[in-house]
C-alpha cells in the first residue's frame, strides 16, 4: 500500500498491535477452569498486546517532511554541486558498479564487499529529496529502477552469484531504499515488494546453515556482515513499523533473531568489563578482535544494542548502549565527536587519525540513539560530530575530502616518511600511502568518497520528532522547516554559530511544541518567548525537551540558549575549547597547493588528467602561523556573530565563520612524532618568547588545526 494511501505508522503513535504467535487459543483451551481461564486470558492478552517492536522514545518523521534552510541548506547545496552530487556522472565505482549489471556479468568495485554503490545510494537519496534536486532524483531513480529490476527470482538484491552471496552490502542499500519509499510514494510499493522477497530469501539462507552470514564465500570475511548486521535490521524494522502483514511480521522478527543469534560478533558482549579494550596493544588486522576495533565498525556499532532492543525487548540493552557510548568516547573519542581509529583504535594520542566514514556513521548512530532511547546527551553528540568532525574533512567547495583527520594536524600534506620507509614505522595503523590526510577525490581508500554524502542529510532527517499523540519536537538544532499533520514549523537560526532560534509556527489546532535544551546551557541566560510572554527553561531531565503549549493559528516562538566558553580535558594536560557545540581550534593559518587527483591504488603516480570535471583535484595544506602554542585559559574571550551579519555559504571554509575566541599564550618547544606530526604535548611549557594574543576558530573551518591545546 502506498504512503499516500495511508499514513506512516510509528509504534509510539498508536500503531495497531498484533498477536505475534498462534498459541494463545491452544493455551486457553488447555485450562478448563473458569477462574484459571480468566487469569490466563488477562495474561495472554497483555502479552499479545505488546507491540512487535519497542516503541521509539521519540518517533522520527518520514524523509521529505523536513527540509534544510539557512547555513545547512548552503552546505547541502554545495555538496550537491560538488563531488557527492557528480559521482554518478563520472566515478566508475558508482556509474559502472557491479550492482548495475546482472549478477556475475561485470561491473567494478573497489573490493569484493561490493559496497560502493550502496554507500553512495544511502546518502544520495536523502540529499536529492531534501534539496528537491531533480538531477539527483533522476540519478537515484535510475539506480533504484536498475537494481530492483535485476532482483533475482529467489529474491536476492545485488551483483553476487549464488555461491558468492553475503549480506553486508545489502544493509546500506536497503537503508537507501526505505528512505526513498518514505520520500516518494510512487516507489513505496515496489520497494516493499522487493524487501519482502529479499527477507523471504534471507530467512531461507539463515535456516540453511547461516549461508551468507556465518558461512561466506572463501575470499569474503564474514565478520563485515556480522559486526554491522544491526544496520540491516533497521530496514527490517522499518517494514514492521510501516508495511508488514501479520504473516510477514513473524518471519521478519525471526530473521532479526537469527541474524543476532548467528553472529559471532555482538556489541553488547563487547562493552563488558574485562572485555572492552581501553588501550589496544595490537592494532593490526590480524588481531582476532579487529572487527571490534575498526573505527567505522565502532561508529556504526554504537547504536547496535538499541537496534537489537527494539525486537527483543531486553531493557538491559539500554545500559549496554550507554556503556558503548561512554566507554568509546572516554577511551577512543575525539573532541570533535568522532572516534580515533586509523583504521584501528589504539589510544588517545593527538596524532591518531579518524576516517571520514567514521564521522558520518557515528553521527547517524547518535541521532538514532536519541530517537530510540531519548537521552539528551546523544543529541548533543550528534550535533558535535556534524558541526565539527564532518566539515573539517571537506574542502569548502566539497570537491575534495580527507580519508583521515587528526586532532592535532597543522598540515595535511604528503607524508614522505611513508614513501621513504615502506616497512615502517608508520604514523597510522593501516593507511600507509602517505596521502591519508591530504584532500582529494580518493586520498586513500574509496569508501569515504562514496559514504560521506549521508552526513548532512541524515542529520536533517533526524532533526525533528513526534512526542506523544499531539507533540512536535525540534531535536537536532539548526535551520530547517518541518511539515506534519500536526503543524508546520520553520526555524530561522544561525545555530550553532549563534544561539538564538526563531520559530514560525502554524497549526489548525493547538499542540505541544518542544525544543531540545543542550546539556551545557546556562539556565540564567536562557529563555523562551511565546505570544510576548517570556519564561525560563525547564527541560526534562532525560530528554532535555522543554514543552510549550501553542494555540491554533500562526505565531512566533523565540528561543535563546545561554552559553559560555568551556574547556574539556584531553590527554597530556591539554584542553579542547568549546562554545556551545562548536569546537574551536588554534588558527595556524592555511596555504594550499594542488595537483591532478590520484587513485587510491596509484598514490605515487602522476594523477588523472582526463576527468570531465576540472574541479576534481588533490589538495595539500600547510600552516602559515605557529602551531606549537600553549594558552592561558583565564584570558580567553568569545567574539560572537555581529548583529545583522549573514553567514557566508559555504560556512565551513577557512576564514568564513565570523565568530572566534581570542586568548593569550606563547610558543613552546614541542617535538614531532616520527618526525612528521606533533607528538603528545610536552610537560615542560616554558615560553620561548613573550606572550601574544592567539585566535581560536571553529574547528570545522580549520582544515589544518590544533584542537588539543596545552595550557600554561
Secondary structure layout:
Elements: H1 24-30, H2 34-48, E1 66-68, H3 70-81, H4 83-90, H5 92-95, H6 116-131, H7 134-149, H8 170-183, H9 188-207, H10 223-227, H11 229-242, H12 246-261, H13 267-270, H14 290-293, H15 295-301, H16 304-312, H17 316-332, E2 354-355, H18 356-373, H19 376-389, E3 401-402, E4 404-405, E5 408-409, H20 416-420, E6 439-440, H21 447-451, H22 455-461, E7 464-467, E8 471-474, E9 480-483, E10 488-493, E11 500-507, E12 511-516, E13 527-530, E14 533-535, E15 545-550, E16 553-560, E17 565-570, E18 574-579, E19 582-586, E20 591-595, E21 618-622, E22 629-639, E23 660-667, E24 672-673, E25 677-678, E26 692-698, E27 705-706, E28 709-710
Helix pairs in contact: 1-2, 6-7, 6-8, 6-22, 8-9, 8-11, 9-12, 11-12, 11-16, 15-18, 16-17, 16-18, 18-19, 18-22
Query: What's the helical proportion of residues?
Result: 25-40%
**What spatial order of strands do you see in the largest sheet?**
1-9-10-11-16-13-14
Tell me the strand percentage band. 15-25%
Q: What gyration radius follows from the Cα positions, in whole Å?
A: 26 Å
Residue-averaged pLDDT: 93
Annotation, overall tally of beta strands = 28
**Biggest sheet overview:** 7 strands, antiparallel
Structural class: alpha+beta
| Count of DSSP H/I helices | 22
Contiguous runs where pLDDT drops below 50 for at least 5 residues: 1-48
Spatial gap, N to C terminus:
65 Å
Judging from the principal axes of the Cα atoms, what is the shape? globular
Amino acid at each position: 500500500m502506498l504512503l499516500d494511501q495511508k499514513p506512516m505508522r510509528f509504534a509510539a503513535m498508536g500503531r495497531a498491535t498484533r498477536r505475534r504467535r498462534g498459541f494463545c487459543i491452544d493455551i486457553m483451551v488447555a485450562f478448563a477452569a473458569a477462574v484459571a481461564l480468566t487469569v490466563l486470558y488477562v495474561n495472554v492478552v497483555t502479552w499479545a498486546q505488546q507491540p512487535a517492536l519497542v516503541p521509539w522514545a521519540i518517533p522520527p518523521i518520514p524523509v521529505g517532511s523536513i527540509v534544510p534552510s539557512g547555513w545547512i541548506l548552503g552546505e547541502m547545496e554545495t555538496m550537491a554541486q560538488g563531488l557527492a552530487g557528480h559521482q554518478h556522472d563520472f566515478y566508475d565505482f558508482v556509474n559502472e558498479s557491479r550492482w548495475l549489471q546482472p549478477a556475475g556479468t561485470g561491473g567494478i568495485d573497489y573490493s569484493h564487499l561490493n559496497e560502493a554503490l550502496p554507500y553512495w545510494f544511502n546518502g544520495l537519496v536523502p540529499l536529492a529529496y531534501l534539496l528537491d534536486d531533480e538531477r539527483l532524483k533522476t540519478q537515484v531513480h535510475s539506480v533504484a529502477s536498475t537494481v530492483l529490476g535485476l532482483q533475482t527470482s529467489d529474491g536476492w538484491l545485488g551483483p553476487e552469484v549464488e555461491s558468492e552471496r553475503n549480506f553486508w552490502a545489502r544493509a546500506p542499500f536497503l537503508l537507501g531504499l526505505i528512505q526513498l519509499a518514505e520520500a516518494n510514494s510512487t516507489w513505496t510499493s515496489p520497494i516493499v515488494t522487493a524487501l519482502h522477497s529479499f527477507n523471504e530469501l534471507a530467512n531461507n539462507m539463515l535456516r540453511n546453515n547461516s549461508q551468507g552470514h556465518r558461512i561466506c564465500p572463501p575470499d569474503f570475511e564474514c565478520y563485515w556482515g556480522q559486526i554491522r548486521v544491526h544496520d540491516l535490521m533497521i530496514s527490517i524494522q522499518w517494514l514492521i513499523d510501516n508495511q508488514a502483514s501479520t504473516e510477514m511480521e513473524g518471519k521478519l522478527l525471526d530473521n532479526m533473531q537469527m541474524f543476532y543469534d548467528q553472529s559471532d560478533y555482538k556489541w553488547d558482549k563487547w562493552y563488558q568489563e574485562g572485555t572492552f579494550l581501553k588501550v589496544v596493544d595490537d592494532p593490526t588486522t590480524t588481531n582476532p578482535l579487529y572487527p571490534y576495533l575498526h573505527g567505522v565498525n565502532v561508529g556504526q556499532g554504537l547504536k547496535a544494542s538499541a537496534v537489537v532492543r527494539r525486537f527483543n525487548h531486553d531493557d538491559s540493552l539500554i545500559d549496554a548502549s550507554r556503556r558503548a557510548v561512554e566507554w568509546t568516547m572516554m577511551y577512543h573519542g575525539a573532541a570533535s565527536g568522532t572516534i580515533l581509529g586509523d583504521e584501528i583504535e589504539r589510544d588517545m594520542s593527538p596524532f591518531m587519525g579518524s576516517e571520514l566514514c567514521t564521522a558520518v556513521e557515528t553521527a547517524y548512530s547518535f541521532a538514532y540513539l536519541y530517537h530510540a532511547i531519548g537521552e539528551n546527551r546523544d543529541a548533543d553528540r550528534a550535533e558535535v560530530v556534524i558541526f565539527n568532525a564532518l566539515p573539517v574533512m571537506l574542502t569548502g567547495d566539497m570537491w575534495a575530502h580527507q580519508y583521515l583527520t587528526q586532532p592535532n594536524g597543522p598540515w595535511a600534506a604528503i607524508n614522505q616518511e611513508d614513501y621513504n620507509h615502506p616497512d615502517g614505522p608508520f604514523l597510522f595503523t593501516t593507511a600507509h600511502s602517505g596521502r591519508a590526510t591530504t584532500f582529494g577525490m580518493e586520498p586513500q581508500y574509496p569508501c569515504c568518497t562514496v559514504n560521506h554524502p549521508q552526513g548532512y542529510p541524515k542529520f536533517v532527517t533526524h532533526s525533528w520528532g513526534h512526542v506523544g499523540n499531539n507533540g512536535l519536537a525540534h531535536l537536532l538544532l539548526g535551520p530547517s522547516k518541518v511539515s506534519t499533520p500536526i503543524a508546520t514549523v520553520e526555524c530561522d537560526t544561525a545555530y550553532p554559530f549563534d544561539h538564538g532560534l526563531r520559530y514560525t509556527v502554524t497549526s489548525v489546532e493547538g499542540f505541544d511544541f518542544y525544543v531540545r535544551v543542550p546539556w551545557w546551557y546556562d539556565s540564567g541566560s536562557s529563555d523562551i518567548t511565546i505570544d510576548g510572554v517570556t519564561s525560563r527553561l525547564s527541560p526534562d531531565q532525560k530528554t532535555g525537551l522543554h514543552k510549550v503549549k501553542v494555540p491554533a493559528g500562526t505565531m512566533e516562538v523565540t528561543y535563546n540558549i545561554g552559553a559560555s566558553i568551556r574547556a574539556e580535558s584531553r590527554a597530556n594536560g591539554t584542553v579542547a575549547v568549546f562554545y556551545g557545540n562548536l569546537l574551536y581550534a588554534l588558527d595556524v593559518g592555511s596555504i594550499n597547493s594542488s595537483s591532478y587527483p590520484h587513485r587510491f591504488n596509484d598514490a605515487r603516480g602522476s594523477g588523472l588528467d582526463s576527468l570531465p570535471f576540472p574541479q576534481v583535484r588533490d589538495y595539500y595544506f600547510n600552516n602559515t602561523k605557529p602551531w606549537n602554542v600553549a594558552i592561558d585559559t583565564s584570558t580567553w574571550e568569545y567574539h560572537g556573530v555581529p548583529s545583522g551579519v549573514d553567514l557566508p555559504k559555504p560556512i565551513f571554509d577557512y576564514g568564513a565563520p565570523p565568530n572566534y575566541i581570542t586568548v593569550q599564550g606563547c610558543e613552546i618547544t614541542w617535538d614531532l612524532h616520527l618526525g612528521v606530526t606533533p607528538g603528545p604535548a610536552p610537560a615542560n611549557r616554558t615560553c620561548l618568547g613573550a606572550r601574544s594574543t592567539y585566535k581560536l576558530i571553529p574547528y570545522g573551518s580549520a582544515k589544518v588545526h590544533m584542537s588539543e591545546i596545552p595550557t600554561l
